[in-house]
Amino acid sequence: MNIFQHKLDGGASVIWAVPLSGYGHIADEQPLPYIHYQGKELTPRFGGEDGQEGCGLHTIGLPWGILKNRWPLSQKIFNIFRKNINIYWRNIFVSRCRADKNFYFLEQLDYIASPQGFMGESPLIRFERKFLIEGASVQVEDTIVFKKTVLFEVFYPVNIPLLDNSPIKLISKEFLIRRGKQRSSAGEAVMHVLEKNSIEFKEGDTYMYQYKYYINKGNTKAHME
């Protein structure tokens, strides 16, 4: 498991990890910045058990969507030998091509570390996430390249859990809907999502999105007192 840690101005630390491509346990994932300061959590960390309320692949912080049509043959072939093995050996015989046609980037792409974050790829999609440290902020830049035409009944390119009582300010170019909870051993967070209904991406299309976690030093200090 590839884990990266950096210091921000003001003394806070940020950690992220390369996704395990569906081979690990949900509690091992950290594809979004986990920011903490003097032992206090400013953003959520992931964990818990898949299947519990507020804990699932849709809360992990990676894009996902519901396919409009049947699973493409190239993705089905890609998934044949990609068994869902984790520390409990559960789901080893469960197909990644779900009957509900939920396409989770976490389990449908194979990931590797990149100089500024990580990259994932499948026959349908290439995905890259970069983390840019800028003083007391962390900017996240996502790029999705569609290698084949993909139609989604609904697509969620942005899924960000945030703590309500945190001094972290999220700067996003589009309005994000507050929808649902994310729960883990760290507590409860609110999901902020971007929803795209009945959308088609053609071969060669690129979808880019960026957002920034900004830490107000004064608010951070007050939060700690």
Could you walk me through the main structural features you see in this protein, from its secondary elements to its overall organization?
The structure is a single chain. This protein is mostly beta strands. It contains three helices and 15 strands. The chain has helices spanning 73-79, 105-108, 217-224; strands at residues 3-7, 13-17, 34-37, 40-41, 64-67, 102-104, 110-114, 117-121, 125-134, 137-146, 150-162, 168-172, 177-184, 187-201, 206-215. A six-stranded antiparallel beta sheet has the order 7-8-9-10-15-12. A five-stranded antiparallel beta sheet has the order 6-5-11-14-13. Strands 1-2-3-4 form a four-stranded antiparallel beta sheet, with no helix packed on it. A hairpin with a 3-residue loop joins strand 8 (117-121) and strand 9. The longest helix is centred in the C-terminal third of the chain and has 8 residues, at 217-224. The radius of gyration is 17 Å and the shape is globular.
Which radius of gyration do the C-alpha atoms yield? 17 Å
Structural class: mainly beta
Number of strands: 15
Largest sheet: 6 strands, antiparallel
Helices and strands, in N-to-C order? EEEEEHEHEEEEEEEEEH
Q: Uncertain segments of ≥5 residues (pLDDT<50)?
A: 220-225
Mean pLDDT: 88
Query: Which strand order does the major sheet show?
Result: 7-8-9-10-15-12
Name the beta content range: over 45%
